[in-house]
Amino acid sequence: xxxxxxxxxxxxxxxxxxxxxxxxxxxxxxxxxxxxxxxxxxxxxxxxxxxxxxxxxxxxxxxxxxxxxxxxxxxxxxxxxxxxxxxxxxxxxxxxxxxxxxxxxxxxxxxxxxxxxxxxxxxxxxxxxxxxxxxxxxxxxxxxxxxxxxxxxxxxxxxxxxxxxxxxxxxxxxxxxxxxxxxxxxxxxxxxxxxxxx
Amino acid sequence: xxxxxxxxxxxxxxxxxxxxxxxxxxxxxxxxxxxxxxxxxxxxxxxxxxxxxxxxxxxxxxxxxxxxxxxxxxxxxxxxxxxxxxxxxxxxxxxxxxxxxxxxxxxxxxxxxxxxxxxxxxxxxxxxxxxxxxxxxxxxxxxxxxxxxxxxxxxxxxxxxxxxxxxxxxxxxxxxxxxxxxxxxxxxxxxxxxxxxxxxxxxxxxxxxxxxxxxxxxxxxxxxxxxxxxxxxxxxxxxxxxxxxxxxxxxxxxxxxxxxxxxxxxxxxxxxxxxxxxxxxxxxxxxxxxxxxxxxxxxxxxxxxxxxxxxxxxxxxxxxxxxxxxxxxxxxxxxxxxxxxxxxxxxxxxxxxxxxxxxxxxxxxxxxxxxxxxxxxxxxxxxxxxxxxxxxxxxxxxxxxxx
Lengths: 198, 403
Hints:
The structure holds 2 protein chains of 2 kinds.
Chain A: H1 15-23, H2 26-48, H3 54-68, H4 78-94, H5 113-132, H6 135-146, H7 151-158, H8 162-179, H9 184-194
Helix pairs in contact in A: 2-3, 2-4, 3-4, 4-7, 6-8, 7-8
Chain B: H1 3-18, H2 26-42, H3 53-69, E1 79-82, E2 88-91, E3 96-102, E4 106-120, E5 127-131, E6 136-140, E7 142-149, E8 152-159, E9 162-166, E10 169-173, E11 178-180, E12 184-186, H4 195-207, E13 214-218, E14 248-250, H5 254-262, H6 266-279, H7 285-298, H8 302-315, H9 318-335, H10 339-346, H11 357-370, H12 374-387, H13 394-402
Helix pairs in contact in B: 5-6, 5-7, 6-7, 7-8, 8-9, 9-10, 10-11, 11-12, 12-13
């Protein structure tokens, strides 16, 4: 029985792994896709918001990643490589009309129905606000603030200087703060995180 | 953007982070993967990218210009600068080098195009830093070259040791080793337009009494400008990424930690910034301290944050002291209700001529009022109104003067 092939998406690949991908080795490509799949789907969900064609976007991104792996030279990690393609696919889907919105999952304490309703309303509002933002700012906000990527890595993914990403991040934060100002659930959460103020 | 605006955004980011897509079972996932592999293998192989004749002409012209602007092999030494500290910088003609900061404590140089060799005197207590869009280099006494080709940076060490931080991965380079951004280290520091000079300078160093030499290279916290590549980057194979003479260890820079803060990873950022601050290798300890203090604020440990900001005021360069003192004072007054503490923080440095002058004056008036010193508060508020009659705090200051 053959050893299962494993890839660490956050590490630089070994030469034999890169060669296997460039050869089009099916097991290697499948292992590489499997390693980036969870991040890729979650990232598309965060970028595109709740929508029914999420898995269409995931499929498109996987096909593009699989095709591009044959030219992968190992200069970046698989994670960054896949993120670059995922973001590109997301830009395409931003322009597609949304057929139907999916109900958002509640985030708050499941034992507190009021909090659950409030958080769901806030999330809905947040999704609408993100849609109002420019695509570039939205991508920057999701990658930097939600996913915690350093601006330098986002700059590499977007192919722009990191100074541009920092500027977009500042604009995105400012715009989102303005759009979401006065949201009672966010205000309550903010006060709770501050701890002291009423 | 004010601090007050930032915090709700972090709450929103945390909410968004917690939202998961609808669950997908293993069979559906495997089907997606399989279809992707099948579709990609059926797709026609991508033809070799061909540049249009216009592009080919443009690239040829650019390469020609680049060659004309670089010295030939027989050319004399390139431009030679000697800084007041005794450090010497040899720059290839046509390079774009900016001296961003030159004082007793810090020398920061940005290299965006071309190549340079740096012969840095042993300076234990200060910082010598060179940045490129891919890397930044903090040095204490060594001879090394930095070259930017296309969008990659090559570092070659001719004498001493170098520590490279490239996207969070730290690599130490010994003498005669080189590093390529995105590829790793190679055993021989050869090639490069300044190799001959670098080796000669290293030989001169050898003849001198031995001085311990250490250099640290970290990821670039700044991006000075966009540089269009004029030549194709050399193939990765030229750099031979596999040999690793020195151990690697994970590392972060201030911008990484700021990303963590932006993502609400306050505890991670605090712990890492604290460690980096204590290490204090790069002379940027206060910057890590600043991140640590902001993380403490994010964690609700405002009193600790304010104390740390106060402490950092004495460590930071003069230009940055005002911001730290203001943060300390603001946290003490608005979050801890400690008016006397806020006044003490404001007294730690001068705000004259800084961007925070107006806000610091307003804060002082409010702190004095909160401390029960109404007369002094009215006097400072009057001073504010005299200077900034249309200022953002003018209404509040008028109210203080009326009391």
